[in-house]
Amino acid sequence: MATPNQLVLRSDVHFQAGKREDILDLWTQNAADAGVNVRYNAEVNQVSGQIGNFSLTLTSGEIVLGETIILALGTQGNPNLMRCDGSTLPHIQYSLDDPAAYVDEHIFVFGGGDAGIENAMGLAADPAQGNIVTLVNRSSELARAKDANIKSILSAQQAGRIAILHETTPSLIEPGFITLNTPQGSQRLACDRVIARLGSPPPRQFVESMGVEFTSESREAFPKLSPTFETTTPGIHVIGALAGYPLIKHCMNQGYDVVEFIAGNTALKPADEPILEAKLKNLPGNRTVAEWLEFLRTEIEILSGLSALNMREFLLDSEVHSFDADEVVFARNSIGSSLFGIADGGVLVQIDPNNAQVTVPISAGSIFGEVGLISGRRRGATIRASVPSIVMEIPRTAALKLMATSPEARAAINRITTERHLLQIFKSGMTPEDLADILATSEVIEVRAGQAIITEGELSNDVFIVRSGSLVVERTIAGNPIFLSYLPAGSYVGEMALIDNAPRNATVKAAVKSQIVKLNGSTFEDLLKRKPKLAATLEASASTRRKINGFIEQEKSKFGSVVDMYSSVAGFLIEQGLGEATDVLLIDEKLCIGCDNCEKACADIHDGLSRLDREAGKTYAQLHVPTSCRHCEHPYCMTDCPANAIHRGPDGEVFIDETCIGCGNCQRNCPYDVIRMDTPPAAKPSLLNWMLFGAGPGPGEPDQKWKLAHKQKGAASAGKVAIKCDMCKGKDGGPACVRACPTGAAIRISPENFLSVTQLGQRR
Amino acid sequence: MSRPPKTNVNRRTRNDHHESFLRHKNFLWLKRAAGLSLIAILGYALIDVRPHPNGGSAYGYTLGILCTGLIIWLMLLGLRKRAMTPGAWSLKAWVSAHVYLGLSLIVLATLHTGFQFGWNVHTLAYVLMMIVIITGIYGVIVYVRLPTALGANRGEVTQKLMVEELVGLDRQLSILARPLTSDLAAIVLVSVDPKNIAGGVWRRMTNQHPNCKTRAALDQLARAVPSATDAPILAEIQTLLDRKASVLKMVRTHIQIRSLLVAWLYIHVPATFGLLAALTAHVVSVFFYW
User: Fold this and answer.
1) Which of A259, A462, A630, A734 gets the highest tally of CB atoms within 10 A of its CB?
2) Residue B18 is nearest to which of A333, A588, A615, comparing CB atoms?
3) Which residues of chain A fall short of a pLDDT of 70?
4) How far apart are CA A62 and CA A521, in angstroms?
5) Count of domains in chain A?
6) Is the pLDDT of residue B1 over 60?
7) Same-domain check for residues A723 and A589
8) Same domain, A188 and A297
9) CB nearest to A619's CB, from B12, B82, B151
């Protein structure tokens, strides 16, 4: 794994992202040049003693003495080894670097986890390699792996590209053959290579045996560390992945720093100091980086649980802004999913979009922007500073990490979110005190896709707020469920029954996995009695819904089949992921002439690689959803990006920036299969050169042959990077696919506009 | 002062209207082209050119320059659709204008001739232009009528998948045929021919494949009397061949529709270049013989 480009490498040992072998060779060379003592085959079993006098007992029984210890073990530990006769043969390997390096081999991959599945898929990916790949799994199911990996290997199995043997263990490995114990008995099979991905014991137990304490019992917890990476056992330091920093350059810098600290250079600033200094230099207050870290940590409530090291890491991901009085922090309807914490000053939330005077204050120490963080939707209100303020902007991924690691932060954010959500929705001069009762009875429920929270005809009066995900409203007419409307995150539903005191007149179900806040109906009714203005607001929105219901009834009698059609098309689109989409490319097959100009335009405007596959994807009623990014509310691709290279842009586009390290996590996490890993081809000759003289491959993505023949100079070592739709970010005129469609078949839509019953009959 | 990056509250200009190229902006270009033609007709009727209307009069020249300009602009569509430059243009708008302005040439260029035709390069240019327009009209017709059939035929199968399935079926057939007696195997292997998919231009467009080798293999197998050992294999082969025949039908229909969608361009575009040559000759000769 490489690292963010902005970080300078301090270490005397060099590093250049590239092939594993090259990096290891370089390090071996550097270590030898620097005269570092390296002991190979020296497994440490036990560490005893204290600072200045540690003794390390090796497996061989030998004892090594040391004054200080730096642990850079990673989190993986040593791989579990194959345990059968012949397990020391050279064709057994415990890692796989380049699946493309093996051709025409019978390969057995052991291990039903993600690593095993990904290796097996990699080896079988290209049929031209001619490998016969078998995945051997000890248990009866592939339960440990990620859903996406399981799905992809099962479909590869169905397609006959991979064989999977369950409940099978090896009994003998010989050159050229392997004998397996299968549920059907013993089998001897041809085998040229064994790849064992049997997991590895986490090193925590070993580390704890040295007296090192961890921050919590959780499996994700890291050792407690001082700002100099020292553990609770003086003289033992931890760096790298085990300390919570999985990137190589980070780890190399930490190694350098720790050695300097141990050598007595206590004045040394961490490698990221210049980055933090640059971030903080324009702020008022004349504080040093260390003072800023402490100031932010103590002033902002949700950060109080962080250590100095965590805080440092956290600030690297975040930004600190200063605002003058009355300056806008963000505007209503702007895109953004970051969370803001107020370190100094205060802000005003403009709750009435039409009147800047109607505001609610938020004071120092508290947070705002949490609705966008949780729902992924546009900002619901304009926020300005009330006095000169200092505000920390925490990006979504960092905020989620914070919520995952600090239970106090999570509880605080959740409580504030629900309260603000209510204030924002009901806007009628409510105060947090008014909501105390209803907050006390509210609960956050998780619903899976398709699960109903309200059923037509039932007698209930709870009110629901969509916190994340989305809901669909359906109504049964003549025995068929008719799609009425789509409720994105941030909307509320269920108030009609309360106002009309009638049974539910529609069914409301989750379109995708959603988080819903359930408000107790009776408590809510009390609130309405106390707050006539709120009742009026609700009555107004209820009357719009009544109109839509009336419209449905009326249209239904006129042209029922059109309504049915609309309803089933909407259902299809929801199935295709529109329920969580913000912007999606659709193709009207009544107009598509199959010219692929959309794909060609996409490749031409984005350095030669198309980000969409027009033909692939599902079709219903001549509406085709091609394989192309839906720009999900909560992008799956963003969830596990080690380089933090995936962002949401100002137009809502989810894009990958140039810091991508090509790890492929986003590709595996995307349920819609719209991310590809590839190397951009060399620049093509100009269009006129092609038209007049036939130079180059012509418009669109060059074919594989041309790409290989014209490899970019210097790109030989450049690896693949993740490529996906960025909605032609920053390009004047908007998405190229739509602009390049000659017939108007390609359109981009956002679901809340498209999935509304008022659109009925307006297609085309 | 440091500030969060500016956020763009108003979204970019977006083309999310769902209108076909013919209806683009509520028939904007139809209206413009019709207006242009109407003005030209009125001009022709009102301006009294002596001895009789011709391309050499002031009005004739105006129309001639207009037509030449239009023809050159219409030709630029070929560049436009391949040059994915930034900018707020839409190819749909270009196609819409191309269709309607191209049709208006029927009126404009005919008026420019003053209805004087003969066996010369001038009339040649006119005839070539009409060929281009007529093939263009055919193009519009197929663009409107065929896409639905294209989508309906392939369902959710992509062209790549169709070819992959055929290759896979062929591989299975050759493996299955191995244990058969040589004459039976020969019948089966007849169908395994990667070149026997689409055929030449005529076969592609008509989708008539009387020499389909898969069909032939099926017919011959139906008449074959297999031995007891071959019979179960043949039954399996029969299923595969039936499957192959249905995939072939889909591929061939796919190819047929796609061919029909582009075939007209093989007249439309070369005729355009012929027109450009004839037009150049026409313009040069007119000025030469001024």
Assistant:
1) A630
2) A588
3) 1-6, 17-20, 77, 144, 147, 218-220, 374-377, 405, 424, 427-429, 478, 548-549, 551-565, 712-718, 752-764
4) 72
5) 5
6) no
7) yes
8) no
9) B151
